[in-house]
Amino acid sequence: MASLGSVEWRAICDKFTNARNLTDVESRNDPENDPFRSKYKARELLREIYCSLKSFEAGECEEESEGESGEQRPTEPFVDGQRDDLFVQGFSGDSPAGLRAAKLGAVEYYLGVNHVDTEELSAGQEHLMNCLKQLEKCKVSSENVSLFIHVRNQLGILWAGRDETETAQGFLETAESIYQLYMKEDGSPPTDMTEYFTTKEKLLTHQERTKRFEFAYTHTMYYLAQVYKNLGDTERAATYCHSTLQRQLQSNQFNPMEWALNAASLSQYYITKGRYMEGRHCLSAALVVSGLAGEVPSEAAAQESETESERREKLRQERAEISRCWIKYCLNLLQDAKKLLEDNTGELDTDRQEELKRVRKREEEEEEKGRKSALLFGSEDTFDSIASLEEKVSCLFPLDFSEARAIFLVGQNHVKEAKEYFQMDGYVTDHVEILQDHSALFRNLAFFEEDLERRCKMHKRRIDMLEPICNDLNAQYYLLIRRQMMFELAETYSEMMDLKMTRSNRQADTESLDNHTIKKINHLCSSSAKYFQMFLDSLCSPEGKFPEHLEEEVLRPALVARFRVARLYSKLICSLPSVHLDNLNKSLENYKYVAKYCEAHPEAVAAVETELELSKEMVGLLPLKINRLKARMAANN
Description:
Blueprint: H1 7-24, H2 37-65, H3 85-88, H4 96-117, H5 121-135, H6 145-161, H7 165-185, H8 206-230, H9 234-251, H10 256-272, H11 276-290, H12 299-302, H13 308-341, H14 350-373, H15 380-390, H16 401-421, H17 428-448, H18 452-472, H19 479-504, H20 515-537, H21 552-571, H22 577-600, H23 609-636
């Protein structure tokens, strides 16, 4: 029987050390044509360790049976003083049988991870389940609690990878419960699994044990965040993600850019829930932590194997992604403020604005209290940097143009940074999406602008950035993007037309408008109609036939486009009665289309209730107007 310091025991320790080195270090240099060479070698060493442990276990059982009458009896735990050093070094709270089971379970665990890493999932699952069977012989204690959690983490990952989310959830929630119960009832730094096969002089310090144990639990929380996300429980997913990020910062075990991207992604959840304080905090933390990229704050970062140029390129992309998240923050904050302040005509409700300004002072006073209740990132060192970034952009709804402009400028700055990486050449879809967000920033800022001419100029900026791209995009490859842009351009021209008419003359008739203004209004009106019609034409078959049945994703846009074209033709200002008559007939034709389509397809009514009601009204009124015009034309002739 081997004992502490024996040749056999040191051989086991050496094999385990070699297996770990092959897995964690040598495997990174394996050739592409033999990517698992080192891990296969590690597997053989682990199998040898397992066989050695089983032979030791058999020897222990024989010793326990000596002196018996020959009657077969279950193996009893050793009493104090009978434990073999092979199975008790580093332990203090479990029976020898339990400790032997934990060691065998650990080898099964490492074999399971090895098979999973080499894409042999069924074999990996078998070894991991064997580990659980071994642990059934043990009571949870400081000697084995780490293994209890690690094996369930791995099984959670395995089943999640098979899209068996609920099965994964069960393993991970059990791991969470084991951790929480252990910390409540014991809480001492537990033995790490690597110490099962470590000589006495190489045992870990209490600090290192704590670090590794907490890191395992951080992984449990990270995996649970993914599981809850896949189950659709976004609130719990966000809570676990936030706690994971916090723990990673506190333990200084993180990859800076990976952490920053996760924090930026989490901000998007908070934004959709209107929790802008938390969203801003996540984004500010993401910027601060992304600044650490290039330094090596952890083992994870130190293990990067990319070339310097690849690393720089990846950093540029990841920082651009964070900027895109900032754009969404600014855009959503402006949009939500607009919804809060607009009246039933879509204009600024000044009474509501004044009411909100009166309560703003109290809201600002409560902000600090709210901050203390939020989940905050970082140590004292990083928190000051995060706080200074937060001061540069508000998390409160803007109530006037000045406040809205400050948020707009932050968003526009991040638009510039995002576009530097996501350029049109190579990133068409990303570039266009950034342009659309930039346009939306202008659209929402314009809502707060009281000067109609300046508001019109903001919409002109939107047209200038979108129109050239829309016309240059290949219609075959970027059809959906072009449709989005055509519809937005049509709406923008229409809004400019309304602003121009309101600004130019608010009198009862249009005869007082000068020719230049009339020409400008007609140009805007025709341009809007042109892009709406381009959108409608894009829905036609290759033979040019408009579909009899509109698919759900284009149903509302198509009917709204028809309605808006009808309205635009009736708005055109013209001196020739014949041209005016032609425009009114085109207007009536489009109103009739909306009414008839909804009559033939009742399921479409809910998508365009307001437009349908107005269309029916105009179908009744326009023929009268057309007949009166015809009568005047006949009288003049």
